[in-house]
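Reopening this ticket.

The earlier resolution said the output was attached, but the attachment link was broken on my side. Pasting everything inline this time so it's all in one place.
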Amino acid sequence: MEEYAKVAILLDFYGQLLTPRQYQILDLYYNSDYTLGEIASQLNISRQGVYDGVKKGKTTLKEFEKKLGHAKRFLKHEEALRKILSDLRRVKSLDETEDEEIINSCIEKLEKVIKEL
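Inline output:
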């Protein structure tokens, strides 16, 4: 996954654990796509201050993820559910014998995902 998108996801999960200023800087940078200069102007701080805030905030988010792992677990579950949905859509075009095998497989995958929640 692209680094930019990864940090945006981490911000969604752990943003409220940051200081309000760190969150504001990262939100403008990653979610609103502001440049460092635009953020500096809006917040009345130096461009270097914004850069340092982005760097420190990104490091903090990665530390939270390393310790808690919520984003990784969420993405894993999301991918498993997408696969199950894809398998279920295939059921429409198969004969009855194959349908039962795919449905049983989907049920097993769903049970596994639910247990991990």
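Reporter confirms the inline version is readable. Residues 47-68 form the longest helix (22 residues). The chain has a mean pLDDT of 87.
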